[in-house]
Each structure stands twice: as C-alpha cells, then as structure tokens.
C-alpha cells in the first residue's frame, strides 16, 4: 500500500493543546493524530496537515459541459482530477466510494502540480478541473496545481459545494478561472438532514464569488423528488439569486438518479425540471439549463432578447455555435461568459489517462461523476 502524502495545511490555529481547522465551516478541533470530518486533514504534533496532497483517485479528459459549464469555452477539453474525502455527508452522493473513503489506499499514485499542468498541456486540454470530490478539502493542492497550470497557460475549474470558511474562501477562488457551485437546496433543514451541513455558508460563498467577478461562476441544483422540488422553495431560491448574484449567472437544474443512501427515491421526472426552469425564468434568470436528461431546449443557449439559438448541444457535444465576439449575431446582445472565437469540439469523449513518469495511477473508473 502506498501511503498518502502529508503537506502542511494553511488554515488552522492552536486551541490549547489541540489544533482548530479553519478551512471550512465545520471548524474541527483535533488532537494530534486525529482526522477531521473530511478525513484528509489530520493533526500532527505541530499543526494540521493535508494527507492527500499530490495524489489523485483518477484523471480523465472530458468536455467542459460535463462540469457543467456552458458559458466557459464551450466544447473545450478538460483534464479532470479528484482525491478522496469530503466535508459534507450527502446521502445521495454519486461518488461516495471516494468521498466517504476511510482507506488511504483509495488514493492513487503521485500527481504533482507540475505533472498535472504538463499533462493538460500535452493533451490539448484548455483547463484542469478539480472535481469528483470537493476540491475545498484539498485546497492547498488545488491552489498549487492552479499556479502550475497558469504558468503553462492552462485554465482551472473548481466543481464544488462551496462549503468553505472565509479565511480560505478568497484565496481558493482567486486561484480558479471558473467554478460550478452546487447549491443543493434552499433549505437549512435539507442541508442539515441530507448533507450534514448548513445552507448559509454556501450562500455566502456564492455571493462572494459573484461579487468578486474574477472567477466565472455557474450554479447547479440537483432536483430530488419530494426533498427540494417544491414550488415555494424553488421560488425562494430564484428570488435570492436575482437579488444577490443577478440574472446572468447560469443555473443548471439536473435530474437525480437513485444512489448511495437514497436508492428508494425515484428519479426526477423531466417535467419537474421544466417546471423549475419555468420558475427561474419567471424570476428573470436568463440562462437556465437542464441536465442529466435529453432535452434539446433545456441544453440550448438562446438569446434572451431575440430568442435566437446561439449555442446548441446534443448531450455534451456542441452542434451549433453562432456567437460573434461573445454577442448574438442577430441583435448584438452581449452574452456573459468566457468564449473563444469559435467552439472547440472535444465532443462527448471520455479519455482516461495516467501521469507519465510518476508511476501508474489508477484511472478514473467509468462511473465517477462531478462533485454533488
């Protein structure tokens, strides 16, 4: 068995003869040798260490639309990686084998920040995405890898639940070029009972990232029948988004499929997603998408002024790209986002890869999903 790599953590302080982690809202207070809720942050005799630094549970190249990001270089290839552990306890986690792992062996071979950046560059990936489990818990590794990526002209993406405390929040998102934050519900009770967390820190993260404006932001809500799909909750969420982040942050409503501890809950009906989209549009949100279902209208970027289809998708593949300099070619509406002159065409491929020269890491198994 290969042990994981301990690396000094950046966010902690002494609390008597123990150490308080200040990375996330859990604020775990640890005695030497004790691990936090996330499992990968451990107290030593002198502080707290990140035990998963420089290791990945799997790497693969896939489309940026899978994150999902629809307004960030559409059609481009992304090198995706994750580690193990998580600071939430979602009962429906799609990647629970790694996010809830308590076995260091789940951590694969080494993947140094520089090696990840060079691999992305060599594969022609525009970006590196930190995903599969929440990158907040391996923030030091993600930030250092982002710096290496930027040195080589590669962009970085965080796919995260946004459960991060103020001391680390700005530094983490300042290192990212784009983020998809998972707004799991608009209910404190939901966060407590389904995720073992709290809603307000996530709202604070979303508002701060949107206000800073440097990191391109999109949001995702996994709609689960009977748990977070009520009209009242959806109206309240959309009203909050309009008031606190504006009408131009893309919002993805995605379909739930039974998993982990919620296998008895049925899949989300497509009609439920369409109802959620109608509610969002009624509040003035301009860019609302449907995911995990085949819905051509729900995956199309349409001009809010003249209704012309600007970017059409089939699955994760771009089938039409009509933007000109980031604008609608028919009415000149300025579409928010980060766009190249034309779409790239990585398509729907998923290419599992290994870091050359750093051992044979396990590649991402075919059932890994984005965080959430």
Strand order of the largest sheet: 14-13-12-11-10-9-8-7-18
Q: What is the name of the CATH class of the largest domain? A: Alpha Beta
E-strand count: 18
User: What value does the Rg take, in angstroms?
Assistant: 20 Å
Sheet with most strands? 9 strands, mixed
How far apart lie the N and C ends? 29 Å
- The H-level CATH homologous superfamily of the largest domain, spelled out, is Aldolase class I
Could you say what the CATH architecture of the largest domain is? Alpha-Beta Barrel
Number of helices: 8
Overview of this structure, please?
It is globular, with a radius of gyration of 20 Å. The model is unreliable at 359-367 (pLDDT under 50). The chain has helices at 96-99, 113-123, 139-151, 166-174, 188-195, 200-212, 231-244, 270-282, and strands spanning 7-8, 12-15, 18-21, 29-30, 41-43, 48-50, 58-63, 77-82, 127-130, 155-160, 178-182, 216-223, 251-255, 288-291, 301-302, 309-314, 317-321, 351-353. By secondary structure, it is of the alpha/beta class. It has two domains: 7-50, no CATH class; 58-353, Aldolase class I (TIM Barrel). It has a nine-stranded mixed β-sheet with strand order 14-13-12-11-10-9-8-7-18. It has a three-stranded antiparallel β-sheet with strand order 1-6-5, with no helix packed on it. Helices cover 23% and strands 21% of the residues. The protein has eight helices and 18 strands. The longest helix has 14 residues, at 231-244.
């Amino acid at each position: 068995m290969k042990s994981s790599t301990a690396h000094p953590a950046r966010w902690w302080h002494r609390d008597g003869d123990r150490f308080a982690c200040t990375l996330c809202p859990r604020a775990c207070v640890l005695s030497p040798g004790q691990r936090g809720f996330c499992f990968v942050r451990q107290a030593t005799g002198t502080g707290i260490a990140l035990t998963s630094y420089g290791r990945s549970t799997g790497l693969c190249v896939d489309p940026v639309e899978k994150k999902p990001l629809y307004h960030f270089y559409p059609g481009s290839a992304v090198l995706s990686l994750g580690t193990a552990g998580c600071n939430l306890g979602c009962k429906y986690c799609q990647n629970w084998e790694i996010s809830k792992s308590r076995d260091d062996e789940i951590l694969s071979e080494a993947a140094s920040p520089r090696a990840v950046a060079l691999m992305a560059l060599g594969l022609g990936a525009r970006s590196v995405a930190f995903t599969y489990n929440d990158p907040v818990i391996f923030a030091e590794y993600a930030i250092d890898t982002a710096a290496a990526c930027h040195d080589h002209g590669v962009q970085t993406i965080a796919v995260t639940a946004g459960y991060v405390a103020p001391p680390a929040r700005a530094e983490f998102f300042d290192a990212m070029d784009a983020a998809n934050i998972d707004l799991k519900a608009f209910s404190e009770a939901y966060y407590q009972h389904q995720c073992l967390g709290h809603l307000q820190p996530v709202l604070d993260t979303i508002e701060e990232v949107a206000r800073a404006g440097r990191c391109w932001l999109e949001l995702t809500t996994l709609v689960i029948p009977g748990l977070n799909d009520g009209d009242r909750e959806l109206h309240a969420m959309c009203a909050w988004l309009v008031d606190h982040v504006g009408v131009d942050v893309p919002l993805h409503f995605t379909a739930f499929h039974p998993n982990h501890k919620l296998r008895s809950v049925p899949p989300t009906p497509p009609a439920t997603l369409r109802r959620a989209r109608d509610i969002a549009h009624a509040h003035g949100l301009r860019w609302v998408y449907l995911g995990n279902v085949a819905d051509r209208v729900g995956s199309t970027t349409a001009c809010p002024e003249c209704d012309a289809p600007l970017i059409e998708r089939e699955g994760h593949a771009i089938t039409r790209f009509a933007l000109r300099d980031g604008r609608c070619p028919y009415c000149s509406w300025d579409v928010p986002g980060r766009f190249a002159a034309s779409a790239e065409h990585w398509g729907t491929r998923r290419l599992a890869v290994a870091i050359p020269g750093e051992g044979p890491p396990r590649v991402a198994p075919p059932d890994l999903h984005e965080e959430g």
